[in-house]
Predict the 3D structure of the following.
Amino acid sequence: MDASKTNPAPLPPDQDLTEVRKPASLLIAQFFLFPLIIIGICVGIFLFFGYMTYRPGTISEYLDDVRFGAGTQRWQAAFELSNAVKSNPKQAQSPEFHERLVTAFKSSPDEDIMVRRYLALVFGELKARSAVPLLVQELARSEQLKSADWSQKSWATFLRPSLAQIAEDLVQQQISTLYALGSIGDNSAVPGVLEQTKNQDPSIRKMAAYVLGVLGDPQAVDGLNPLLNDPQEDVRINSALAMAMLGNSEGAELLMKLLDAGYVDGLQDFTAEQKTAMRANAVRALANLKYEPARERIREVSKGDPVPAVQGAALEALNQF
């Protein structure tokens, strides 16, 4: 018998074995670089065709998406609609568009908080006086929804937000609605805005005070006066500014404090820009009142305040005394 056919060839000893290793650069390319190149090509193709097919929607299309879209598409369309109208309000002035906008607002379910928030801003951009009663009702509606049983609501999205997130969204909705009422500028909103000066949320009280100043109705002074003693500094400041805009000097002493750069620098939770605006507005408000005790202090500010914007406001204000 042929031994070569029955006995397998012996393996070489271990020390004779040699391991063939791929260079590290080749491994990196194989496991990281090549896949990244493939992904990059796919993304590039996606972006190219996305760019080729993209076109901005019209206000009519955005409004249709608000009314008939699914899930998050509705509030995203409402956001885009508010931006489009802000950029070019003339394109949304037709009575037919207003009617559809009102219908979209009224038909939005409770959980579409962000839809109504952005639609409220659209009403504000359009100066839609006819929408004032609807927006005033929305302020009360949002307040009631804070205590609603949200477990019984039907949600359009697959993720149900927390109660804390719902409460925050409702606060932002009320702030946006107040802002819209201020933009429209119709004094018929004053009673509804005054109700929000009693709101538990300080950011809503602050916005309500601001809007009452903008609306310019002296009857709002009695509702603003209690806010001069509000626990929140920014609410007190907004109330004093609003009352000055209405020709009332009850908050003038607080405004005098704002002329002091050191005092304002010591306030917490305000950005540098907000502090500058606060001081400049205080100067203008005191000048609007022709508050005589402030004249000399404003003169000092006009000569050498460290903030140019405040100094410029003081120079202009001196001409009003």
